């Protein structure tokens, strides 16, 4: 809820309600609105004591949005920017699968109980089958971000028609931010959940364990920490 408030609600209100010249003005409203998710992103990285490449891409995306406004670039560039980040993620996922180090496998290794799962898979001779299913999950994950790129581009082209630096541009960015949750976030979340459920169901079938037994015991990890 805090993330939605800072990344969606507050920026939307600022850009749609305070972009008038007799209030903050187009550029000031845009920069103030973008400052909230930007600072929050930095705070999250400091709090977690690590710099992840996904949050960095998010910060770059925010910076580009501000740059388009400051440089008063044509509206089409915001659509390119909106599609660029998920497209880069999709490409990275596809390349990871191509070089034999699928990102889906790295993601799964972070949430499943490898010490319990891998010996069972190896004993039953199903490790190769697991690798193949992981490759499928990698393609599904890449497809999710491709879907995000397409939806982002279409939404931006429909909503943002004014050039950067104008009051209309700032207000339209605010509306696009508000619409991005139902139009983009929810469909992508559904697709991502389907990918996760697919691989978790696969692990359950391959090992004979229940899905909750496949996951790491978070309570045990916290007690050990």
Tell me what the structure shows.
There is one protein chain. With 225 residues, the protein is mainly α. The protein contains 10 helices and no strands. The chain has one domain. Helices cover 82% and strands 0% of the residues. The radius of gyration is 21 Å and the shape is elongated. The C terminus is likely disordered.
Can you summarize this structure?
By secondary structure, this protein is mainly alpha-helical. It contains ten helices and no strands.
Please render the helix and strand layout as text.
Elements: H1 2-17, H2 26-47, H3 53-71, H4 76-98, H5 103-111, H6 114-123, H7 127-159, H8 167-207, H9 211-214, H10 218-224
Helix pairs in contact: 1-2, 1-8, 2-3, 2-8, 3-4, 4-7, 7-8
Strand portion: under 5%
Computed CA radius of gyration, to the nearest angstrom: 21 Å
Overall mean pLDDT: 78
Element pattern in H and E: HHHHHHHHHH
Q: Largest sheet at a glance? A: none
Instruction: Please indicate the count of domains.
Output: 1
**Straight-line distance between termini:** 27 Å
The helix content is over 70%
Q: Give the low-confidence spans.
A: 218-225
Number of strands: 0
Question: Counting H and I runs of at least 4 residues, what is the number of helices?
Answer: 10
The shape, in one word, is elongated
